[in-house]
Specification:
Blueprint lengths: L7 E7 L3 E7 L14 E6 L3 E7 L20 E6 L5 E7 L14 E6 L5 E7 L14 E7 L2 E8 L14 E3 L2 E2 L2 E2 L1
Length: 181
């Protein structure tokens, strides 16, 4: 066994169904992993990737992580744009209703550059309004140069710059010969 609480995991691809992960204990019997599920199913379509989580009896359960304030989510839908880049992420409970992954946060909208790097990430509640995360940040804007991230700026839901957990409202990076200086 390991810190993930299972001895063995399996991953199967089934055409038309997607990817199915399962976890087993040292005795070979199905078990829950540290995120509280035995089976994860991943379905991919042209415009989304849907992750759902199930328990030992194939009942819907919540994916749980210590950083989540609400107890987790059963379904995560990752929306993709026409180029296949992430454009948003939403979370739902076992009852198919929207859930928060942090207080007030249900949906994250992404804007990306032409190669799929995020240039803006904005947080929304279930009512469609911009919300601050539990770190007082609603939006992160990123800028790139020479293939590397050179600026990251943090904003609240009113569009004002705010200090992120790192203690700064804006972080800049400078590179020389592809090395961060």
């Amino acid at each position: 066994m390991n810190e993930l609480l299972y001895a063995r995991g399996t991953v199967d691809y089934r055409p038309g169904e997607g990817i199915i992960e399962r976890y087993y204990g040292a005795d070979g019997k199905p078990c829950l992993n540290k995120h509280g599920f035995h089976c994860a199913r991943v379905a991919l379509s042209r415009d989304s990737l849907v992750n759902t989580y199930f328990g030992l009896s194939d009942e819907p359960v919540l994916f749980w992580d210590v950083e989540m304030a609400n107890g987790g989510y059963h379904k995560q839908t990752v929306y993709l744009d026409k180029q296949g880049h992430v454009s948003g992420i939403r979370h739902f409970g076992t009852d198919s209703q929207p859930v928060y992954i942090q207080p007030g946060l249900h949906f994250m909208a992404y804007e990306t550059d032409d190669i799929g790097r995020p240039t803006s990430i904005i947080c929304y509640g279930t009512d469609g309004r911009k919300v601050n995360t539990n770190t007082n940040v609603c939006e992160v804007r990123l800028r790139y140069a020479g293939g590397k991230e050179v600026e990251k700026t943090f904003y609240d839901n009113r569009g004002r710059r705010v200090n992120a957990v790192i203690g700064y409202s804006r972080v800049t990076s400078r590179y020389e010969n592809s090395r961060l200086v």
